[in-house]
Amino acid sequence: MGRMQARLQNLLLDREGPLTRELVRAPGGFGLGQVPEKLKPDATTTMVCGYCSTGCGMDVHMKEGRAVNLSPSTDYAVNLGMACPKGWEALTPLSAKDRATRPLLRDKGGRLRPVDWETAADTFVTRMRAIQEEHGPESVAFLGTGQMVSEELALLGAFAKFGMGMKHGDGNTRQCMATAVVAYKQAFGFDAPPYTYKDFEESDVLVFVGANPCIAHPIMWERVCKNPHDPRIVVLDPRRTETAQAATDHVPLRPKSDLTLLYAIAHVLIRDGLIDRGFLDAHTAGFDDFAAHVQAFTPERAEEASAIPAPEIERIARLIGEGERVSFWWTMGVNQSHQGVRTAQALINLALMTGNIGRPGTGANSITGQCNAMGSRLFSNTTGLLGGHAWDNAEHRDKVGRILGIDPARMPTEPGWAYDQIMEGILAGKIRGLWVVATNTAHSWISQDDARAILDRLDFLVVQDMYATTETVEHADLLLPAAGWGEKEGTFINSERRIGLVKQVSRAPGEALSDFRIFKLLAEAWGVGEMFRRWSSPEATFELLARCTAGRPCDITGIDGYDTLDALRGVQWPMPKGAQVKRRAERRLFEDRRFHHPDGRAKLLFTEPEPLPEATSEAFPLLLLTGRGSSAQWHTQTRTGKSPVLRKLAPNVPYVEISPRDAQELGIEADELVQVRSQRATVKAKAFVSHVVQPGHVFMPMHFALTNRLTLAAFDPYSRQPAYKGCAVVIERIEMGTPEVR
Ligand SMILES: Nc1nc2c(c(=O)[nH]1)N[C@H]1C(S)=C(S)[C@@H](COP(=O)(O)OP(=O)(O)OC[C@H]3O[C@@H](n4cnc5c(=O)[nH]c(N)nc54)[C@H](O)[C@@H]3O)O[C@H]1N2
Ligand SMILES: Nc1nc2c(c(=O)[nH]1)N[C@H]1C(S)=C(S)[C@@H](COP(=O)(O)OP(=O)(O)OC[C@H]3O[C@@H](n4cnc5c(=O)[nH]c(N)nc54)[C@H](O)[C@@H]3O)O[C@H]1N2
Ligand code: SF4
Ligand SMILES: [Mo]
Questions:
Q1: pLDDT tens digit string along 312-346?
Q2: Which member of 587, 642, 673, 705 has the lowest number of beta carbons within 10 Å of its beta carbon?
């Protein structure tokens, strides 16, 4: 038996019975510590949820070594005994019938056929290598995710870039958080969301911009509801969302007019002396230029842009200026915009101008999306070198190289391409091989007809997923079957920077392997297994990653292993060596008012607002907004779609929300099937006639693949995040003789 075969056999043997210590240590074995032996067969264990970035703690109840049920933890600082429907139903999707259980390889006839892991690994290596040999090492790329544990993200990024010699790799975090990352880096000197969830309870004014936490972060919203200060809750959203309905003040601004409106608020604050000059002088840079810039942004000018009356803008400005503890929260209504970074920074500026940072109940706070978007920001090796380092810094490369035992000469010296550049690279024939891990590009990427055509141009597409039926798998040449949340261990970082533990409470079906094991296997097959010896298990990897953070703002060298995370009930970064952190502690950043730029000051940044990339016109008179439809649906629904309970809690057919006035003008009845057309595509959806959307706007949830057939590929210039919210469409009745939608 060859060496490779022996390793593979060990790998698969592990899956049959409980993994013994002997097997872990066996020569040639992967040496991956496994959790089941740690778990008592009928005990209850604790871990964090694998959907959204809230990061709720769950008590998972085991019977005969397998999870049978779960309930939200009452002693976890995040959720205090609460969970949303997805969390309660988190185990169900694991036993779905369409789980990927064996590697599948597309044959000459175009059909995906089962192969063994050895063939899969061999094919991966042979095909990727052949492409690199013909077109250069940079002709293969990867797309990762914010939905794997940090240990896996890091191993993927390290193997791809240091082992395989890839230069370009990005992830779905680009679709989601890139804007916040850039906004924070430029303003604070480091990607540092400053808040703790306790701030939801401690504010007396909360300003939510382009965020719908009632649906997207229901347990964060529960924390808002626990606020004892009878707070003012201001919601800036073109739609009258569930959150807007529950707020004290809804500002239904025109889409993407936020920038102008926020500048007008700054204008009023300065004009009326409602700013904290002492704070600005001592801890910030750029205020005078900013003040000069917003001089021209009168409430009247903002009224014209936003359709919010000037006196109302003045009123909101005063609420902010006169509040004691004001917090600003933003999500995708800001990030997914052609001017997202500067809009986020306009919010940061408001917090800085009013001294609302580093104190309880304050902050310029970006709410993250996926369970481990924050982990991907620190450890994915995409935009930055792992552990909060920079590619173009030789000292950083040396330090990380030393800790990992990897030659820094193997490290790229600049960031690779962003997601959209990788897609463009495929179109230009520069990228020929792509490895997509835990994201569903053919559903979620913007302007999807183009996206699918682009995927089909690849010489070799590898998809690594839990399910064999995703839209992206349809385009794959090779499918690698992955274990999901609950079937492997590792750590997630939530929105408030809390590192939480994920455990194995169930066995993956068939021959599916954890992503960690798949990466180890492929590294062996590639011939660089030795390079990743130190990454012997997820926990050993965590320890390596922690060491890499030494001296960075995200320093977690004080966390000595998973047991500490468990004992403290999650830990918010930073926790440097020697730091004393209490169990269930809730900590915020910048209490010392020192930011991460060399001069310790935060920067106020600004720009001229730009028009929408695609304005409405006579032919396309309506503006399409997209986003989350319900708390029971997750993204492309590969997971939530498998739960009969969750399916009952949300509409199962594609729909478009339209205002009663527009519906009447177009002669559209409630629940009628209509045609939605953009310059890219025409799709059919049910008309939901609702006051939630304003006349002139329509909304479609992102949970159905057809929504992104309509969207326009436009991006923020600084973050390269797609502008998913705002393209021009027309809605038409389907009458006799209407041509079939293709
Ligand atoms: N149930 C559920 N929860 C989720 C997810 C899910 O799929 N399902 N996904 C998770 C992820 S990854 C993310 S990123 C978050 C997203 O969480 P959110 O950002 O809260 O959700 P969205 O619905 O995408 O967008 C929020 C709001 O932005 C508004 N908006 C659109 N354009 C504008 C604008 O120009 N200005 C302003 N002010 N508002 C605008 C929309 O009307 C929408 O109500 O949710 C996370 N939580
Ligand atoms: N129109 C529109 N489009 C949008 C958005 C919008 O608001 N409007 N929002 C954007 C945002 S914010 C986001 S975050 C993206 C999300 O877009 P995607 O990342 O494409 O969405 P998911 O459905 O979460 O895809 C995750 C994939 O990983 C698989 N998976 C889950 N767990 C694991 C695992 O542990 N290992 C492996 N290997 N696979 C796993 C799932 O089966 C699924 O196929 O969508 C973006 N697209
Ligand atoms: S709010 Fe988010 S983390 Fe909490 S249970 Fe729901 S999906 Fe899971
Ligand atoms: Mo997201």
A1: 999 999 999 999 999 999 999 999 999 999 999 99
A2: 673
What is the sign, positive or negative, of the torsion defined by CA atoms of 698, 702, 706, 710? positive
Which atom from ligand 3 is nearest to the alpha carbon of 79? 4
Question: What is the number of the ligand 3 atom nearest to the C-alpha of 220?
Answer: 1
Mean pLDDT in residue range 661-684: 97
Q: How far apart are CA 305 and CA 294, in angstroms?
A: 15
CA 288 to mean position of chain CA atoms: 35
pLDDT per residue as tens digits for the range 582-637: 999 999 999 999 999 999 999 999 999 999 999 999 999 999 999 999 999 999 99
- Measure 211 CA to ligand 1 centroid, in angstroms: 5
The per-residue pLDDT for 315 is: 98
Cβ atoms of 49 and 371 within 8 Å: the answer is yes
What pLDDT was estimated at residue 128? 98
Longest dimension (CA), the chain: 80
pLDDT band at 639 (very low <50, low <70, confident <90, very high): very high
pTM (predicted TM-score): 0.95
Task: Phi first, then psi: give them for residue 192, nearest 5 degrees.
Answer: -130, 85
Q: Beta strand 104-106 with 433-437: parallel, antiparallel or unpaired?
A: unpaired
| Amino acid sitting at position 530 | E
Can you list the domains of the chain with their CATH numbers? 3-93 (2.20.25.90), 104-172+371-572 (3.40.50.740), 178-366 (3.40.228.10), 622-733 (2.40.40.20)
Inter-CA distances, 337 with 255, 612, 723, Å: 9, 9, 4
Q: How many Å lie between the centroid of ligand 3 and the Cα of residue 645?
A: 16
435 closest CA partner among 487, 488, 472: 472
CA distance 390 to 1: 44
Q: Ligand 2: which residue has its CA nearest to atom 35?
A: 484
332 C-beta closer than 6 A to ligand 2: yes
336 CA distance to ligand 1 centroid (A)? 9
What distance in Å separates the CA atoms of residue 562 and residue 560, rounded to the nearest whole number? Answer: 7
| Mean pLDDT, the chain, whole residue set | 94
Ligand 2 atom having least distance to the Cα of 176:
12
